[in-house]
Amino acid sequence: MSDEKSLGEQIKENDKIVDAAGAIAAEKLGEVNPELALKPGEPKQNHIKLIVDYGPLVAFGLTFFACSVFKLVPKGDALIWASGVLGAASLVALILGLVAEKRIAWIPLMSCLITIPFSIMTVYFHNTMFVKIKMTIVDVLIGSILLGGVLLKKQPLKALLGDALKLKDAAWPRLTVYYGLSYFAMAAINEVIWRTQSDTFWTTWKLVSIIGGPVVLSIALLPFMMKNLVTDPGTDDAPKGG
């Protein structure tokens, strides 16, 4: 009996570890959707957090368009300079978050771990392909985490948003699948755009899709979420909808 109990406790502990890892991985959503990076208890008007989440992206866009419009660098080099600024700004955001919050936040940390190597390769090899495929890799990574979580009977999206968004338990796997598929679709679109369009078009797409894409997706999923919203906090057994 003691052995069986020990084994059962070990299984529970392993499940807790997997759940915790899923929650941490889900926070990666914040890199492509900074709004999701906000903890339920944190005020959205937190200016430091907004700077940390959006600062590198804004710095990237401003650098590219300033270099392009005012011809500050040779033609074709604007995206390379913007990539270097993106890598540097990501590191500054990580440090700023550490100073302001007295801890290393997962979102900026993961952003640095992915962004800085690709920024360095873009500048070193003088090849914009690296910064462009980074967006594809990030979207595929997030989509895989979400869909993989569903296959493993885990709910990374609920772990991230469950305190702020009260949905019926049966709705979370479907919502996770919708989000996962949307990231794979974004990755496919990115591959088509960077291979066929100009740097200016791709940069515009990057800025618009990262900020506006999640908003459009949330609006599209609003009817589904409204049908599955838990109105009585004491129960999750309301009639299923959507």
Verbal overview:
The chain has 242 residues and is mainly alpha-helical. The chain has one domain (2-227). 76% of the residues lie in helices and 0% in strands. The chain contains ten helices and no strands. Helix 6 runs antiparallel to helix 7 (129-151), helix 7 runs antiparallel to helix 9 (171-196) and helix 9 (171-196) runs antiparallel to helix 10 (199-227). The radius of gyration is 20 Å and the shape is globular. Mean pLDDT is 81; it is low at 21-45 and 237-242.
Secondary structure: elements and pairs:
Layout lengths: L1 H25 L2 H4 L1 H4 L9 H23 L8 H24 L4 H20 L3 H23 L4 H6 L9 H26 L2 H29 L15
**Helix content, binned percent:** over 70%
Q: Separation of termini?
A: 45 Å
Please state the average pLDDT score. Answer: 81
Rounded to the nearest angstrom, the radius of gyration is 20 Å
Structural class estimated from helices and strands = mainly alpha
Number of strands: 0
